[in-house]
Every structure is written in C-alpha cells, then in structure tokens.
Write a structure and sequence with these properties.
One of its GO terms (biological process) is monoatomic ion transmembrane transport. This is Potassium channel family protein. With about 325 residues, the chain is of the alpha/beta class. The chain is about 50% helix and about 15% strand. The protein is built from eleven helices and ten strands. It has a six-stranded parallel sheet. Helix 8 links the parallel strand 5 (about 215-220) and strand 6. Helix 2 (about 15-35) crosses helix 3, helix 2 runs antiparallel to helix 4 and helix 3 (about 45-55) packs across helix 4. The radius of gyration is 32 Å and the shape is elongated. It starts with a helix and ends with a strand.
C-alpha cells in the first residue's frame, strides 16, 4: 500500500476512530521525541509517552518535566496541538453519545440482539401484552416496530424501538428479523377492518420472506381474511373480533347478573390464557356444550388445539375430539 492509498484509507475511517488514532500517534510521537531529547528526565519511552498524554490532556501531574529549551518548546507545541486535538476528540465523543441517545429514542438505531420478540404496531393490546411479558419473563428482549410514533413510547418499558413500516425490508433488517424468535402483528386501530387486515397480511408476507423460520402470530379482524393470513405465512391467526363476541355471548347468559363491560375491563389484568386437557366426559360434545361446562368454573373457552393447529373460536356445533386441548381464559394462579 503506497502513501496515497494509505491516506485515502485513513479518511475512510469513521471520524471518531480517526480522531482516536490521531491522538494515539501524536502522543506516541511526542513521547519518543522527548525521550531522545532529554533521556535523563525521561529514562524510558513509556515515561515520555506518559508525559505526552498528561501534558496534551492538560492534566499536568508534574511528575515528569522537560528542563532543556528544546524540551520546553516541544511541550509548548504539544499543548497547542495535542491539547486542542484531545479537546476536540472528547467533544466529538460527547456529541456522538448524545446523537446516539437521540437516534435510539427516535427509533433509528439497529437492534443487534438475538432470540427476541418483535411487536408490530403500538396500541392498547400491545401495551397489555408487553406488560404481561415483562412481568413474567423480564429477561425476554423485545423490539417494537411502529411508524406512527415519533419516539420511544414509554421509558418504563424495556424495549428497543424501531420507527418504520414493517412491510419494508430495511425496517425489518433494523429489527434484526433474521435472529428473531417470534413476531406478533397487531391490527392498526386507525384503519377500517378490511384495510387493517390487508396491512397485517402484507406485513406477514414481508416478515416470512425475510425469515422463513420465525414464528408469526397475526391478528385478523374479519373472518374471510383468516385464510389469507395463513397463506401469507402466519403460524397462528388471532381473530380478536370473534373472541370478543364470544365473551359477550357468555356474559349475556350467565345465571348471575353482571356488568359485562366491567368484566371486560378487568379481563387482561386478572386473568390468563392457558391450555387444559379435555375432561373425559366432554369427549364428543360440541364446542358450545364444553364452553357452558367451563363457564360454571369461571373459565372461558377461547378455542382448541388440534394436531398442533390452533383453532380460535370454532363454530359452536364443532365436535370436540379426545385428543384436543382446550384453550381457556381463567383467573391468575
């Protein structure tokens, strides 16, 4: 590599690293020179380098002092050149730190971790889910992708925020989609149901294209779009409208009068989803019969898992098989 190539290589280095390298070279150069100029005052090269750093940074311990005229002239040059350079370097480091913190809060910094969960969309469902995950799995890393937020939503949440459109590859790369374990796609409350479902399906396609192995859970609002979400690559499709309708149905026909809306408001703070084995006497019964039986024990039947497939809110007349597992909503243990 000739001098010109070396010079071009030097200026291709990021500014912060270039300044640091320049400070090191300059201090080492002055340290070597002062050692040869005044070997009695600076017995070793390390002593000279130490003096150069102390003097150039304007700390000035005074343990090593040049006594000759040439040595003192070198000290003056070091203070003028090295002091300014060190000050500029420290100011640059401070500015970089502030800019990095600003970019992080604005969702511009790439996430470099692994085995994380990605939430797409910021809404009340995301807030509740985030609270539950961090309360029970505090060690789990979470990345939030949203294009409507101007900055990180809440400093109390231990999340990495990425601002952008989750249908774009660049945004997904910033979220390190290839190393993610799971992605949860929630519906956009600002859109009508059909537009929200189309957006969720398009997001599912983009994510599946970037990571064929990641688990994708997609929220769909309209029943006729469920099959399209599955075709797009969703491993699980949550039909939230159907779930809420089922909840209203069960509360309307409870024996004891209750306030349905009060129960709904309390639902996510006092209850949990879990899988339970099907009782023997319910084998061959309908989904409605099984649901009515569970209501008596204050459990809401949400769906079933059959041969590894999650079926949320199947038709009421669907027959429950012996190998099925029940997905219920019950009080916290």
């Amino acid at each position: 590599m000739n001098l010109q190539q070396l010079w071009h290589f030097y200026f291709r280095i990021p500014l912060l690293y270039r300044l640091f390298l320049t400070v090191i070279i300059l201090m080492f150069l002055f340290g070597v020179l002062i050692h040869f100029v005044e070997p009695e005052s600076f017995p070793t090269i390390f002593d000279g380098v130490w003096w150069a750093f102390v003097t150039g940074s304007t700390v000035g311990y005074g343990d090593y002092v040049p006594l000759s005229t040439i040595g003192r002239m070198m000290a003056i040059l070091l203070i003028l050149a090295g002091g300014g350079l060190v000050t500029f370097y420290m100011a640059t480091v401070s500015a970089k730190t502030v800019n990095l913190e600003h970019d992080f809060s604005k969702g511009k910094v790439k996430y470099n971790g692994k085995a994380h969960i990605i939430f797409v969309g910021w809404n009340e469902r995301t807030k509740q889910l985030l609270h539950q995950v961090q309360e029970r799995h505090s060690e789990q890393s979470i990345v939030l992708i949203d294009q409507t937020l101007g900055s990180i939503p809440d400093q109390d949440y231990n999340i990495h925020f990425i601002r952008g459109d989750a249908t774009e590859d660049e945004t997904l790369r910033k979220a390190n989609i290839k190393e993610a374990n799971c992605v949860v796609i929630t519906s956009d409350p600002s859109k009508n149901e059909r537009e929200a479902d189309q957006q969720s399906i398009l997001t599912t396609v983009a994510i599946r294209g970037n990571n064929p192995n990641v688990t994708i859970i997609t929220e769909i609002l309209t029943k006729d779009q469920t099959i399209n979400a599955t075709r797009a690559g969703a491993d699980s499709v949550i039909r939230s409208n159907d779930f809420m309708s089922t909840l209203f149905y069960h509360e309307l026909f409870r024996d004891e009068p209750v306030e349905p809306f009060d129960l709904i408001l309390e639902l996510f703070s006092n209850q949990q989803f879990k899988e339970v084995e099907l009782p023997k006497h319910l084998e061959g019964k309908t989904f409605l019969d099984t649901s009515d039986y569970l209501v008596a024990s204050e459990q809401i039947l949400v769906g079933i898992r059959r041969n590894g497939e999650l079926i949320i809110n199947p038709p009421f007349q669907k027959i429950i098989a012996a190998e099925d597992t029940l997905i219920v909503l019950s009080k916290l243990d």
